Amino acid sequence: MSATIVGYARVSTTGQSLDIQLDKLKAYGCTKVFAEKRSGRQADSRPELQACLQFVREGDTLVISRLDRMARSILDLTKIADQLKKKGVSLKVLDQAIDTATSEGRLMFSLLASFAEFENDIRAERQLDGIAKAKERGVTFGRKRALTLADREKIRLLREEDKYSVPQLAERFKVGVATIYRSLQKSD
C-alpha cells in the first residue's frame, strides 16, 4: 500500500473562503482533502477533522497550511500529534515549514503550538477588557428590552385599576404573555 498525502483545511465562519488553503494543498500534491467551516476551538466538534484523522494510515502525510487550522489549544494539538505519531503519520505545515518527520520539525511544532495558545489567551483577555470598558461606558449587551420602564408601569396600572387581563395586555403591548407576567412580577 502506497503512502497518501492527505490535506485538511478549515476556516472559522461560513463567510470565509477555503480557496487559498485548498489551492496550497492541491499544489503540494494532496490526493485527498478534508475541509470544513467550523470554529477551531475544540477538535472533537469538527467532523471533517475527525474523519481525516480516521482516514490517515501509517506512512501517510497529513498536510495543513497553518498550525492554527488544525487546533487552537496546545491540548488539542498535542492530542492530534500523539494520535498521528501512534498511527505512523507525519504532519507537514506548509506556511510554517514544519515537518514532524524530522526532530527539528517536532521542536518547531511544539514551540508554535505554545505560541498559538498564548496568542489565543491574549486575544480572549483583550476581548474581556473591551467588554468591561464598554460596560463602564453604559453599553448594554444582549437583546433589547421588549418593554420600557414606562411600559411596565402602565401595564401595572392597567392591570390593577382597569382590570385588564394578561392576554389583553400582551396584545396591547405586542409582547408575549410571559413578558407581561415577568413585568408584573418585577413591579412587586
Give a quick rundown of the structure.
Residues 4-138 form the Resolvase/invertase-type recombinase catalytic domain. This protein is of the alpha/beta class.
List the keywords.
12% strand, 8 helices, alpha/beta, 188 residues, five-stranded mixed sheet, Rossmann fold, 2 domains
According to CATH, the homologous superfamily of the largest domain is Resolvase, N-terminal catalytic domain
The strand count comes to 5
Q: Biggest sheet, strands in spatial order?
A: 2-1-3-4-5
Distance between the termini: 76 Å
CATH class of the largest domain: Alpha Beta
Uncertain segments are none
Taking the sheet with the most strands, its summary is:
5 strands, mixed
- Radius of gyration, taken over Cα atoms and rounded to an integer in Å: 27 Å
User: DSSP helix count?
Assistant: 8
The CATH topology assignment of the largest domain is Rossmann fold
Strand content: 5-15%
Structural class: alpha/beta
Do you know the CATH architecture of the largest domain?
A: 3-Layer(aba) Sandwich
Write up what this structure looks like.
The protein has helices at 19-28, 47-55, 67-70, 74-87, 103-136, 149-161, 166-173, 177-186, and strands at 5-11, 32-37, 61-64, 90-93, 98-99. It is an alpha/beta fold and 188 residues long. It folds into two domains: 5-102, Resolvase, N-terminal catalytic domain (Rossmann fold, 3-Layer(aba) Sandwich), CATH 3.40.50; 149-186. The protein has a five-stranded mixed sheet with strand order 2-1-3-4-5, sandwiched between helices. InterPro entries: Recombinase_CS, Resolv_N, Resolvase-like_N_sf, Resolvase_HTH_dom, SSR_resolvase. It holds the Pfam family HTH_7. Residues 4-138 form the Resolvase/invertase-type recombinase catalytic domain. Belongs to the site-specific recombinase resolvase family.
